Amino acid sequence: MKPFVLLATRAEEVPAEEEYALFLRHTGLDERDLVRVRLEAGPMPRLDLDALSGIFVGGGPFNASDPAERKSPVQHRVEAEFAALLDEVVARDFPFLGACYGVGTLGVHQGATIDHTYAEPIGVVPVTLTDAGVSDPLLAGMPPTFETFVGHKEAIHSLPSSATLLGSSPTCPVQMFRVRSNVYATQFHPELDLDLDGIVVRIHAYAGHGYFAADELELTLASVRRAEVSHPSRMLRTFVELHAR
């Protein structure tokens, strides 16, 4: 089988390792078949799409809607690298699934309006599939409404005509969309599922980063510990089943 690639941008070691472990677990792939590239550590290598089965993108600290002068040199580099990669991915309709930062990368590439209007604090929200989402092969077997973990400072305000809306939550109208047939982005985190270790690690790692108030750490932890999130990771394994070659 040709490998999949996980493009990651987390600089913090513990959540970075936890994210990779979760993608490995829920895709069913091993490290040979899911190759991680840490973009915060160095330039994106040349990705030969003919030698790959598909691309995953994890979450990360970069906000696409930040003013250019507030973006670090690393963020400017990563954004330029994604722009070039997505030119080829979209043109070829190559399998791509971006989680959370996927919205900032694919959304910008397609000309979506991204701002702070529909930001969501770290927590659990219900995502309801559109008619297009219900019939999408990546979401086969998913209930029409499911709980999932979110936490983001920006979101898509409006989608361009090139994108198909697949899922929404009450506080964020664009939770998932597709471009062409095989290029996807989610605002939520499909890798955070079945157990709470991943989200708890991230809550501790990103306390003080503006996702929740300084005095809300325990409230945030309590809110996710009451959650029963058990469906979103299915789409990661389905993505592999659909596109492994």
TrEMBL record:
Alphabetical GO CC annotations of the entry are: cytosol
Q: Which SUPFAM superfamilies does the entry mention?
A: Class I glutamine amidotransferase-like
The cross-references to Gene3D superfamilies, in alphabetical order and at most eight, read:
3.40.50.880
Q: Does the keyword Cytoplasm apply?
A: no
Q: What is any Pfam family matched here? A: GATase
Entry's InterPro entries?
ChyE-like (IPR044992), Class_I_gatase-like (IPR029062), GATASE (IPR017926)
Residues annotated as domain Glutamine amidotransferase: 50-195
Taxonomic superkingdom: Bacteria
Q: Which PROSITE patterns does the UniProt record give? A: GATASE_TYPE_1 (PS51273)
Keywords tagged on the record: Glutamine amidotransferase
Q: What is this protein called?
A: Glutamine amidotransferase
Q: Whose protein is this, by species? A: Agromyces bauzanensis
